[in-house]
Write a structure and sequence with these properties.
9-stranded mixed beta sheet; 693 residues; Rossmann fold; globular; alpha/beta
């Protein structure tokens, strides 16, 4: 029995009770600290009166510290170890943010309807209010999810240590942190991303067995990408320079993971990661390859296939991010509709394209020249564009073709791109500096307490909120319209049959009538999808007008360019029903029984013969279009928020409760002077003889 006391006078159960009692007492002490903090809070909903003096608060804090010290001594005297924390702070904050998101979702118009009818204007504003608050919570959650990689100051120090000129950016970052200008963090993070990755991204597309993996392995100098498999997980895989070979994968449902490149196939191939069950969103492979060290990043885009497939939607999402698209065509095959669609999609995204005839060692020099001429003519005839067309091979004795292409086309293009990228980056840094300066000046001014100024600010906040609400309502409307497309096959067939009969095209041959039906079906689907595009364009134009007006009234230099928001509406997927084989001639009785009877008969024949094919195409198109709508509206929301957040923060500063104190005024003057000085130094550096902008 004596062993139970372990020399401390208490048995294990008593020691456990003592520990839990001390933990509970410490929790109560934390609640007292929370009361002290809450009594001084700036919350609009204070829980406690501010009836405790600073001297009293100090005495309370001292007593709490003494009690905690004694708790530790008591536990030590009984040999009771203090348990380590079970939950991480970041995890707990992110969980709480989830409840914050739910709290605001409960005031959406559809939820508020339970308390009475919501007026249309109020509904739009409520939608905007919810999106505004959920957006802020989401950005904080995303910041926490990045972990230490979100430390912008450390990232800038690494850039400076590596020799980058980041003096102005460092001054901007310091001013932002010093004065809590969190609304500028996304813009600064984007700039630092570009400073860290000043690279030229080349995305390589190609059908299975076109030689894409072999090409990239040759460029990398080692066999890193899987060859001889079907990599259809559609996860862009970047090959970048790194001192040591390694890979990093990002996931939709967990933190990024690093792994050896020998495990790459486990995540990028259909055999080992069927239907992307690992939820991989991005993979970066680092290699000590000379061509990557030159600043060029190669991006493998597995699973392109037909642009009518759902998997291609993932590739479409990536297209605008690359600087050059390479389309590989197997010399043992021929130019296909898929290849042409890929080239067209690249051009639609504003991305330069280049076409490579791979495995050129299979052809004689004369046949190779004829194949190149044929491909160039076919692309020009079908698409009206003339991308460069080259022959390459990775086979020994033929690699000179590949080396010539790399030297003459890729490296030269990268040099030009680098200069343009620097100019663009300098413009972004300049716009951010002006935005931060405007925020600091607004904080330095005494708050405008006039009724007219306050009314204007309220009106402007309402406009911004309604613009955000319109985007939210557009998201709901587009979701409803895309859902309708899932079961739209019957309607498409009915409209196509009526159009065929009305046009009087019933005397066509089977091949001609099939082509005519295909055009009518795809035209009808295009009319439906055009309604979706129009809704998004209208929301974007309204949001753009609101942002421009807000920037003008607030005298903000950082404002959207013309059509910057509406430019998100691009690369809308087209409905592709595939090749149809059907004879839709209704017979001579059509002229006797009338147009309605003929349309009904044609409709029934279409349904019976190719109805399942049309229904399958409609279902696939609904999924592809839904993915496009989500991405497009997410991009619109991101562009809107990148400006609106800064304007809202400026409005809050202008309506502040009190003018800054002497110490804060001095800090504001210091930072404004530092920004002006750093900007002057930057301009002088750019204007110096021989300087590269």
């Amino acid at each position: 029995m004596d062993d139970e006391f372990d020399g401390h006078g208490l048995n294990p159960f008593q020691r456990g009770h003592l520990l839990t009692s001390c933990q509970y007492a410490d929790k109560l002490l934390s609640e007292i600290e929370a009361v002290l903090s809450a009594s001084q809070t700036k919350s609009p909903f204070p829980q406690f009166k501010s009836d405790i003096s600073p001297a009293q608060a100090k005495v309370v804090q001292d007593y709490i510290a003494r009690m905690r010290a004694q708790i530790v001594r008591i536990l030590e005297s009984q040999g009771i170890p203090i348990p380590a924390p079970k939950f991480g702070s970041v995890h707990s904050i992110r969980v709480t943010l989830g409840f914050v998101d739910i709290a605001f979702d409960e005031v959406r118009p559809k939820r508020m309807a339970g308390y009475g009818k919501v007026a249309p204007n109020a509904a739009t504003e409520l939608s905007g209010l919810v999106d505004e608050m959920q957006g802020i919570a989401s950005r904080l959650d995303a910041y926490l999810a990045q972990g230490h990689s979100a430390d912008l100051e450390k990232r800038l120090r690494r850039l400076e240590d590596a020799g980058s000129d980041v003096a102005l950016v460092k001054v901007i970052e310091r001013a932002m942190n010093r004065h809590g200008l969190v609304e500028f963090r996304p813009a600064l993070a984007t700039i630092i991303d570009r400073l860290e990755t000043q690279a030229f991204e080349i995305a390589v597309f190609g059908r299975v067995s076109s030689g894409k993996s072999s090409l990239l392995n040759h460029i990398a100098g080692q066999n890193v990408l899987p060859v001889g498999v079907t990599p259809v997980t559609a996860v862009p895989t970047r090959l970048v320079y790194g001192v040591e070979p390694r890979a990093t994968a990002w996931f939709a449902d967990r933190k990024p993971e690093q792994f050896g490149i020998e495990r790459l196939a486990e995540l990028v191939t259909e055999q080992l990661n069927p239907s992307n069950r690992e939820h991989v969103t991005r993979i970066v492979v680092e290699l000590p390859a000379a061509r990557l060290h030159a600043g060029i990043v190669y991006v493998d885009t597995p699973g392109l296939g037909s642009l009518a497939t759902a998997g291609a939607a993932e590739t479409r999402a990536y297209l605008p991010q690359c600087d050059l698209g390479i389309v590989l065509v197997d010399a043992g095959s021929t130019l296909t509709a898929d290849d042409l669609a890929t080239i067209q999609t690249l051009y639609d995204a504003g991305t330069p394209a280049s076409v490579l005839l791979s495995k050129a060692d299979l052809l004689s020099p004369d046949d190779r020249d004829r194949a190149l001429r044929y491909m160039a003519d076919a692309i020009r005839s079908e698409l009206g564009v003339s991308p460069p067309v080259h022959a390459i091979s990775v086979k020994a004795g033929h690699t000179g073709l590949l080396e010539n292409w790399l030297q003459n086309e890729i490296l030269a293009l990268y040099d030009r791109h680098t200069e343009l990228a620097r100019q663009s980056l300098n413009r972004k840094i300049g716009a951010l500096r002006l935005g931060v300066e405007a925020a600091l000046r607004a904080r330095a001014r005494r708050p405008d307490r006039g009724r007219a100024g306050a009314a204007k600010r309220r009106d402007l906040e309402t406009e911004l909120r309604r613009a955000a609400g319109t985007i939210a309502e557009t998201r709901t409307a587009c979701a409803r319209l895309t859902d309708e497309l899932r079961d739209s096959a019957a309607g498409l067939i009915r409209r196509a049959a009526a159009a065929l009969v009305t046009a009087g095209e019933m005397a066509l041959s089977p091949a001609e009538s099939s082509g005519y039906l295909k055009a009518r079906l795809e035209g009808a689907a295009a009319e439906d999808s055009a309604r979706i595009a129009l809704l998004i364009e209208e929301a974007a134009r309204k949001a753009g007008r609101t942002l421009t007006r807000a920037a003008r009234l607030l005298d903000m230099e950082n404002r959207p360019e013309d059509d910057e928001l509406s430019d998100v509406v691009k690369n809308m997927p087209r409905f592709d029903v595939g090749e149809l084989e059907i004879d839709i001639w209704p017979g001579a009785a059509a002229s006797v029984l009338g147009r309605r009877w003929a349309a009904g008969r044609v409709e029934r024949r279409i349904k019976k013969t190719v109805g399942p094919q049309i229904a399958g195409a409609a279902s696939t198109y609904e999924r592809v279009l839904q993915a496009w709508v989500r991405r497009t509206l997410a991009e619109l929301q991101a562009r809107f928020d990148s400006y609106a957040d800064a304007y809202r923060a400026q409005l809050a500063r202008l309506a502040g409760d009190q003018a800054p104190g002497a110490e804060e005024k001095e800090a504001l003057r210091e930072d404004l002077a530092a920004l002006a000085g750093a900007a002057g130094d930057e301009l002088a550096r750019q204007d110096a003889p021989g300087a590269v902008v």
